[in-house]
Amino acid sequence: MSQLSYKAAQLHIESVALPELAERFGTPLYVYSKSQILANWEKFRAFWPSQHKLCYAVKANSNLAILQLLAKQGAWFDIVSAGELKRVLAAGGKAGHVVFSGVAKSEAEIRFAIEQGIGCFNVESAAELERIEQVARALKTRAPVSLRVNPDVDAKTHPYISTGLKANKFGIAMDDAMAVFRRAHTLNHIELLGADCHIGSQIMTDAPFLDAAQRMFSLLERLRDEAIELSHLDLGGGFGVDYQGEQTLDVQSYLEGVLELARDYPQLTLMLEPGRAIVGDAGILVSKVEYVKQSDDKQFVLVDAGMNDLMRPSLYQAWHDILPVHERPGVADAIVDVVGPVCETGCFLGHARHLNVQADDLIAVKHAGAYGFTMASNYNTRVRPAEVLVEDDQVWLIRERETFDDLIRGERLIAEE
Ligand SMILES: Cc1ncc(COP(=O)(O)O)c(C=O)c1O
Ligand SMILES: N[C@@H](CCCC[NH3+])C(=O)O
């Protein structure tokens, strides 16, 4: 993140020193850079003509202030639950600018989305299409629909976040797609608008994306042959970020590749659903070192953030860079395991890291803006961290730290006999 730098031996985000934030808001603490989010957004927008849409994937970071910021930039939104739709609305977004993905939408979610005037359902199965038809009929309306096709492309990413292979649960198999499109075309309460796909997340080269896009364009051709004309094609998200200083995806070349494939469809609106690429490198997780412990052959740095706060290392063996907040020039690094307080051996932030820290120091875990807070839990009855947004020297508290009372709200003791 270009907004992260050392000044006077302390790590700053934009112009704000991290120890100041830790003092004010406590740790663990999620901190996001407003300028970095806007710069990431602009990077996509710059190469994407304005008739095409960018639908920010809310699941990456759904804090209301961030949705509000993106809504102001003209973002559309990709959601996967009624809860995410409520977030978009609460942040000032329009239901008409929302696409609704997800493999197991409930009847209540479908009804709510139609009542709100959702932009489009990204339908993931023939059965879901029938359910949407029924709900729309009961509401005496037509539901806007795109069919999510599974293009059977290997995204070459972690198996848990690959979604575009036949073996994955997502979308309608390419072999069945034509039949489901024909069916959608005939249903009275379905307004067939588009086709979509999403092949996975944290994808680092444009080859799998362009492969999937090509397959989608040949599907559009077959549909055209049957006089089924679509008004949009949504190619999903999945653009990787640079966790380890790898070569990142060249967004410009990918977007240009897609525009080239679309040249025979001047009327077609194209959509993308980036999540991680907009917020991933714009956030850090700040944590305090509680203890340093030397065992036989290892040094453990025990910090106050755990797998419940940032689940990615435990779930995907994901690598996040960890920086000391206080610089100690001239002091050699040790090789340490940075581990959290949760009672699981899998609760760690990083293994075998070169770090020089001592008790009460702060550390910053980089690239924690996407799938950080949104995947946090209350495991071990731990409250989820506060979130702050920073721009230059301005700081906004955008979510308070939870309290113990928040955690037990709704729980009931049973009446004693
Ligand atoms: C349908 C859909 N769209 C968009 C995204 C956003 O993905 P990413 O954050 O990798 O861009 C996801 C998550 O993988 C998704 O499932
Ligand atoms: N949660 C994943 C991304 C999954 C995207 C959802 N389809 C991650 O942290 O990398």
Automatic annotation (TrEMBL):
Subunit note: Homodimer.
Residues where substrate binds: 276, 312, 316, 344, 371
Record's keyword annotation contains Lyase: yes
UniProt cofactor(s): pyridoxal 5'-phosphate
Keywords: Amino-acid biosynthesis, Decarboxylase, Lyase, Lysine biosynthesis, Pyridoxal phosphate
Source organism of the structure: Idiomarina fontislapidosi
Enzyme's top EC category: lyase
UniProt binding sites for pyridoxal 5'-phosphate: 238, 273-276, 371
Reactions that this protein is recorded to catalyse: meso-2,6-diaminopimelate + H(+) = L-lysine + CO2
Modified residues (N6-(pyridoxal phosphate)lysine): 59
Gene Ontology BP annotations: lysine biosynthetic process via diaminopimelate
Residue ranges of domain Orn/DAP/Arg decarboxylase 2 N-terminal in the record: 35-280
Domain of life: Bacteria
Active-site feature positions: 343
Protein name, as recorded: Diaminopimelate decarboxylase
Pathway: Amino-acid biosynthesis; L-lysine biosynthesis via DAP pathway; L-lysine from DL-2,6-diaminopimelate: step 1/1
Family: Belongs to the Orn/Lys/Arg decarboxylase class-II family. LysA subfamily.
The organism's taxonomic lineage, starting at the top: Bacteria, Pseudomonadati, Pseudomonadota, Gammaproteobacteria, Alteromonadales
EC assignment: 4.1.1.20
Tagged with keyword Lyase: yes
Pfam families linked to this entry: Orn_Arg_deC_N, Orn_DAP_Arg_deC
Domain Orn/DAP/Arg decarboxylase 2 C-terminal: residue ranges: 30-369
InterPro entries reported in the protein's UniProt record: Ala_racemase/Decarboxylase_C (IPR009006), DAP_deCOOHase_LysA (IPR002986), De-COase2_C (IPR022643), De-COase2_CS (IPR022657), De-COase2_N (IPR022644), De-COase2_pyr-phos_BS (IPR022653), Orn/DAP/Arg_de-COase (IPR000183), PLP-binding_barrel (IPR029066)
